């Protein structure tokens, strides 16, 4: 990654306003471009305005909660010896409940301007999954564009386009062949210099191929999908930020068939604004839109102006984020209780030793 100034990395007045003159004399902003298990890779300029690549140990943030640790896309302030000081306030954040049984927050990316929701014109396509991504992006007011790939392998792309435009008429949709660079010209208008675009989607939909085509090289490993079920294999194993030759940054993500919802109630209501608006007209304020009399949402479904599928997905996402929030709150409470136990045990041990 070659940069000439911080604007190439996405620096803006939003981040500049968080610094004072004293900070500018003794601190340097670096952007996190990759996060590994034990290392964080950053790019910035040194005190002589020369590009500097840093590798910092995650040890620095071992005592911080997940939200307090660096995510890819973060701006990190370091001192003149390149030791980390603090993370600048984020203007957007994509996060999820971590995979597995453990209830914790996993940061996906921060300071994103636009999300490309990448999906294929085959059996992988799911409007429910698209609405999940829309809800997560809406929580941070991130602009979204749906990118339909593999149009060269599809005899009729209209059903996929119409499935999106039927429920989301104002959502931008671009249809591309990820292996054909001219086909991707439509995407370039969303990737202006200094803008950061994250690609979200399942494995095998063409995220890495899109990045390779836009960059004009084959830096990102790709693999074919299984013909039997259109499912892809995980070729991207970690998140990475890439500068494009004409400016702009692309963030590649490992394939995620689902992002478990957490802290996204407002985002869900925004993505399903039609249902949220109808809910205000229901007879009862606590209407669940199932069998209650005077439900404006159910009336629209009976009249054929709202799909049952859309309401079902709305209920599913809201229930999921409530469940995950409760699990996370319980985990945080247990962690605090365990911390208090250890602290009290240490105090008791010290008192006992002092008496000896």
UniProtKB/TrEMBL annotation:
Family annotation (CDD domains): YjeQ_EngC (cd01854)
MF annotations from Gene Ontology: GTP binding; GTPase activity; metal ion binding; rRNA binding
Region Disordered, annotated ranges: 218-238
Key words, A-Z: Cytoplasm, GTP-binding, Hydrolase, Metal-binding, Nucleotide-binding, Ribosome biogenesis, RNA-binding, rRNA-binding, Zinc
InterPro entries xrefs: G_CP_dom, P-loop_NTPase, Ribosome_biogen_GTPase_RsgA, RsgA_GTPase_dom
Role of this protein: One of several proteins that assist in the late maturation steps of the functional core of the 30S ribosomal subunit. Helps release RbfA from mature subunits. May play a role in the assembly of ribosomal proteins into the subunit. Circularly permuted GTPase that catalyzes slow GTP hydrolysis, GTPase activity is stimulated by the 30S ribosomal subunit.
Gene responsible for this protein: rsgA_1
Cofactor requirements of the protein: Zn(2+)
Domain CP-type G: 102-259
Binding site for GTP: 149-152, 201-209
Any GO BP: ribosomal small subunit biogenesis
Cellular compartment(s): Cytoplasm
Residues bound to Zn(2+): 282, 287, 289, 295
Domain EngC GTPase: 110-257
Matching Pfam families: RsgA_GTPase
Name of this chain's protein: Small ribosomal subunit biogenesis GTPase RsgA
Family (UniProt): Belongs to the TRAFAC class YlqF/YawG GTPase family. RsgA subfamily.
Self-association state and partner proteins as the record states: Monomer. Associates with 30S ribosomal subunit, binds 16S rRNA.
Superkingdom as given in the UniProt entry: Bacteria
Catalytic activity, EC: 3.6.1.-
Record's GO cellular component terms: cytoplasm
